[in-house]
Design a protein that fits this description.
mainly alpha
Length: 74
């Protein structure tokens, strides 16, 4: 069953602007680069997997907010 919930536009705008903090994004980029080189420790691989999952979740939530706002990702 689908329900309609009213949400302030400001909240949807905020969600549409979500992204990883710069320090976290740099860490993700570093881990991805090192993964390509095959030089990750098992702990770093776990960190990479968690950060990728978080990044993907943020991307999905942003896409949904942008859809509600009638916009496309940029």
């Amino acid at each position: 069953m689908s329900a309609v919930i009213e949400t302030p536009r400001e909240m949807v705008e905020t969600v549409a602007q979500l992204h990883l903090p710069p320090k976290t994004d740099r860490r993700l980029q570093d881990l991805m680069d090192r993964n390509n080189d095959g030089s990750l420790t098992p702990e770093e691989r776990e960190d990479l997997e968690a950060l990728v999952e978080l990044s993907e979740t943020i991307a999905i939530v942003r896409a949904q907010a942008l859809h509600v706002l009638g916009r496309t990702p940029q």
